[in-house]
Design a protein that fits this description.
Layout (H helix, E strand, L loop, with lengths): L1 H5 L6 H18 L5 H15 L9 H11 L1 H8 L3 H6 L4 E6 L7 H14 L5 E6 L26 H14 L1
Parallel strand pairs: 1-2
Length: about 170
């Protein structure tokens, strides 16, 4: 939703965009055993079926999306469930997000980490959501990835100070 909002996509186009993204995520997750080429073909077919059978294999935007979602890394990323690993962690954890992060949504991410740690009987979780910061902890206008290179700040000083203080209090 944050990506669509940041790109100015409005209803009903936003609803269609989100539905399409959700379907592609599920398609990639549920067909993980296909070769990269077979995955590419499956995703192209998905797009073509959604667009009345029109051949979209030469469309640059569709090609870019297909290449992204058929890559081994993206396929692994979409299929990976961090819950078992988090349940096994028995050390203090600091989970931080920027509230303008459009890649890892704080409102979804932090509760998921907290729930997994609780199931593993780890109560050593500290969380912090930094206002106005993006995925890279930079001061941001929109939080969209296309903004990253335009921002001179590497990491907001408040984040560095917070992480430093958290580490020092562990000792």
């Amino acid at each position: 939703v944050k990506v669509a909002d940041g790109q100015g996509i409005v209803d009903p186009v936003k609803t269609m965009f989100l539905d399409q993204q959700k379907n592609i995520f599920e398609l990639v997750k549920n067909t993980g055993n296909l070769s990269t080429e077979a995955m590419r073909d499956t995703i192209f077919t998905f797009y073509e079926q959604r667009n009345g059978g029109v051949n979209l294999r030469d469309n640059p935007q569709v090609k870019q999306t297909v290449n992204q979602f058929s890559s081994p890394w993206m396929r692994y990323f979409l299929a990976y469930d961090p819950q078992p690993a988090l349940r096994a962690v028995q050390v203090p954890i600091l989970a931080i997000n920027g509230d303008k992060d459009t890649q890892v949504i704080a409102e979804q991410n932090i509760p998921g980490i907290q729930a997994a740690l609780e199931k593993g009987n780890n109560s050593q979780l500290t969380t912090k959501i930094f206002p106005g910061l993006n995925h890279l902890f930079q001061t941001a206008e929109t939080g969209q990835a296309n903004e990253y290179a335009q921002i001179e700040e590497t990491v907001h000083p408040a984040v560095l100070e917070y992480v430093t203080d958290w580490i020092l209090q562990l000792e």
